[in-house]
Design a protein that fits this description.
By secondary structure, this protein is of the alpha/beta class. Helix content is 26%, strand content 26%. The protein is built from 9 helices and 18 strands. The chain has helices spanning 44-50, 128-131, 134-148, 165-176, 188-196, 225-230, 254-259, 272-285, 300-308; strands at residues 2-6, 18-22, 32-41, 62-63, 69-71, 77-80, 83-84, 98-99, 111-115, 119-121, 156-159, 180-184, 201-203, 213-218, 232-240, 263-266, 291-296, 315-319. The strands form 4 sheets. Strands 3, 5, 6, 9, 10, 17 and 18 form a 7-stranded mixed sheet that branches. The chain has a 6-stranded parallel sheet with strand order 13-12-11-14-15-16. Strand 5 and strand 6 form a beta hairpin. Helix 3 crosses helix 4 (165-176) and helix 3 (134-148) crosses helix 8.
Length: 320
C-alpha cells in the first residue's frame, strides 16, 4: 500500500528522512481493527518523529501520522483515538502509553490498524477531513481548556501563537464555549484571522494586553514564556503542551509564579472520553476544525514543508 514514512532520522534536516512509496499492509492481530483511511492530518509530532524525538532508528521504517478518519472492517465511518496503551486494551495493562507512530505504524497510508478500543463513531455532521483534524491538536486544546485550565464561560484566556493547530483549536473552542479569548501572532494576517475565528483581540507576541487573563494556552515555549506568566491574573493557570520555539526560556519567572500563586500545568493529548465529548461538541454546536489545506497523500511532502515553514493557519489534511 502507498504510505508516507520515516526512512531515516535527521535532527537538522528532518524532511530528508521522509519517503513516499509502498509499504506492507498491516497484519491482522487479536483485539485490533484495520481501518481504510479516508483522511489524515499532520501534526508537529510528525516533524519531531523525523528528528528522532520519540522514535528510534531501530523502529524504522515507520509510517507517520497520528490522526485519521475512515471506514472500519464493518463499513462504519470512524475516527481514531491515537493514544495507544493508555487503557491496556489491545496491548496489555503494563505497556506505557504512547502516541501512534512512537511504537506502531501510523495513519499516512491507505490502511492502519489500531486496538478496537481506539475506534470511535464519526458524527455524520463532520466530513472525513474535518474529523481527521480532531484526535491530536483539537483534543489537546480541548483538554488544555476544559480539563487542565478549568475555565468557565466568561473567563478570559490568552492563546499564544495563533495559526498553529492547537492554538487555532483553542481559539475556536474557547469562543464557542463563551470564553473571552485573546491571541498573539507575529503575523498580521494570522492576527486578523484569529479575530475572525472569535478572538476578542489579537496582538504581537510580548505586547501588553488590555487586561490580565485567567488562563494561558501555551504551545510556543521559550519565546513566549515570560509574556505568558506576566499576562496571568493572581491565581491564574498556565497550561503548556508544547515548546516549538524551544524548552528553555531565558527567565523562568519563578518569583512571579510563587508570589502570585500561579499554577503551571503540563498537558499531553487527551483521553478517549474527552475525544468523544469533543466530537459531540463539534457536532452539536456546529464547530468545525480550521483547515489550511487538503492534499492527496502522494503530495504529503508539500504538507510537511508547509508545516515546517510555519506557512499555515489551521490543519493540513492528507486524503487517500
Amino acid at each position: 500500500m502507498f504510505a508516507a514514512y520515516a526512512a531515516r532520522i535527521d535532527r537538522d534536516q528532518p524532511l530528508s528522512g521522509l519517503e513516499l512509496g509502498e509499504r506492507p499492509e498491516p497484519a491482522a492481530r487479536p483485539g485490533w481493527t484495520t481501518v481504510n483511511v479516508k483522511a489524515a492530518s499532520l501534526n508537529h509530532h510528525d516533524l519531531w518523529s523525523l528528528r528522532g524525538v520519540g522514535l528510534g532508528e531501530e523502529s524504522l521504517p515507520m509510517i507517520l501520522g497520528c490522526d485519521a478518519a475512515g471506514i472500519d472492517e464493518d463499513g462504519n465511518e470512524v475516527v481514531l483515538h491515537s493514544v495507544i496503551g493508555q487503557s491496556g486494551h489491545g496491548v496489555g495493562p503494563k505497556e506505557p502509553r504512547s502516541i501512534l507512530t512512537e511504537r506502531y505504524q501510523g495513519t499516512f497510508a491507505e490502511k492502519v490498524t489500531v486496538p478496537s478500543w481506539n475506534v470511535l463513531p464519526k458524527p455524520k455532521e463532520l466530513s472525513f477531513e474535518e474529523a481527521a483534524c480532531l484526535p491530536t491538536a483539537w483534543l489537546t486544546a480541548y483538554r488544555m481548556l476544559f480539563t487542565n485550565a478549568g475555565v468557565r464561560p466568561g473567563d478570559s484566556v490568552l492563546v499564544q501563537g495563533a495559526g498553529g493547530g492547537v492554538a487555532t483549536a483553542a481559539i475556536v473552542l474557547g469562543a464557542a464555549a463563551g470564553l473571552r479569548v485573546l491571541a498573539t501572532s507575529r503575523d498580521e494576517a494570522k492576527r486578523a484571522r484569529a479575530v475572525e475565528l472569535g478572538a476578542e483581540g489579537a496582538y504581537e507576541p510580548g505586547e501588553r494586553l488590555p487586561r490580565r487573563v485567567d488562563a494561558v494556552i501555551e504551545t510556543v515555549g521559550a519565546a513566549t514564556w515570560s509574556h505568558s506568566v506576566k499576562s496571568l491574573k493572581p491565581g491564574g493557570t498556565l497550561v503548556i503542551s508544547g515548546a516549538t520555539s524551544g524548552p528553555n526560556p531565558k527567565a523562568a519567572e519563578l518569583n512571579r509564579i510563587f508570589f502570585l500563586e500561579l499554577k503551571v500545568v503540563g498537558s499531553t493529548m487527551g483521553g478517549k472520553d474527552e475525544l468523544e465529548d469533543l466530537l459531540s461538541f463539534c457536532a452539536a454546536r456546529g464547530v468545525r476544525p480550521v483547515i489550511d489545506s487538503v492534499l492527496p497523500l502522494d503530495r504529503a511532502r508539500e504538507g510537511f514543508e508547509k508545516m515546517a515553514g510555519g506557512d499555515l493557519f489551521g490543519k493540513v489534511v492528507l486524503t487517500v
